[in-house]
Amino acid sequence: MSISLRALAQAAGVSIGTASRALKHQAGVSEQQRQHVQQLAAELGYDISRLQREPIRRILFLLHAQHTTANATPFYAEVERGARLECLDKGIELQPFSVNANSSIRRQLLQQEADAILCVGFIEPETLAVVQALGKPTTLIDASAPQLASVNPDNQAGTRLMTAQLIAQGRQRIAFLSGSLAHHSIRLRERGYREALFQAGRLADPALEALIPPGLDLASGTRLALNELLNLAVPPDAIIAFNDACALIVQDACRERGMTLPDDMLICGFDDIAAAEAAHLSTVAVDKAALGAAGVAQLLAAAEHQEITDTLHPVRLILRASTGV
């Protein structure tokens, strides 16, 4: 008689979710754990056919509440659109959802009755741990975490290219205005900025890296960080904002100070949201819908017990009037 998955997990000293992922060759377990669980399954006579999963019919689009604000919505709404179109083509329901931190995360997720989960953008580590323990196919979009497959734009290349462009235009003091570095994408965008400076033989000036203080909304936080930059003894002559929403606020604030753009300051963002084109903002274009579609494709591959790996989507520069082009 075949033992249960619970009994197998107990014998292996792992959670049920880890045992399930190990047997299905999914991400989220180490190779050592995978081999250990599979060896025990063979020794104890676990019936692998028990793991045959019903086709994915419902995917949870898990988005942090901070990503549902007006400033974040243009980016993540496009990611959701791409995921939804991919699901529609395959007869799958996509359910957007944000957890309530004041009640049981596990209970909330189970109540959604999803077959697979897309974790989109920044998600707290404790929430990701609960998601992993469920043992469902899981993919991250615009994020990264150990032992979970992910889909990301090439954030580092994007700011590297933009910084190199500004250097080529003769700008000497290029600043980077950053949001929280707890976000995977923002960390890599800052790294690309520094990488371009290094490749040009320039030392990174800490005074030119302004961070939006935690706890502030984007508008007030951006203005506070911008004031720090503009009040330097030698202010920047170009600013790369961590995303377009931030860059648009920088543009408005500079004009309010009486600056003539782009003569007095070159400004650029990242993501290429619709408002960036209307404001003639130079930016780094991200195919946001493609990220969503690729995330769904990864989940379907995982459900078929296929090995899946992180994927990096190319980005491209969009040069407009805000950088004098």
Automatic annotation (TrEMBL):
Provenance organism: Deefgea tanakiae
Domain annotation HTH lacI-type: ranges: 3-57
SUPFAM superfamilies: lambda repressor-like DNA-binding domains (SSF47413), Periplasmic binding protein-like I (SSF53822)
Listed Pfam families: LacI (PF00356), Peripla_BP_3 (PF13377)
Keywords: DNA-binding, Transcription, Transcription regulation
Key word DNA-binding present: yes
The UniProt record lists the keyword Lipid metabolism: no
Protein name: LacI family transcriptional regulator
InterPro entries recorded: HTH_LacI, LacI/GalR-like_sensor, Lambda_DNA-bd_dom_sf, Peripla_BP_I
Domain of life of the native organism: Bacteria
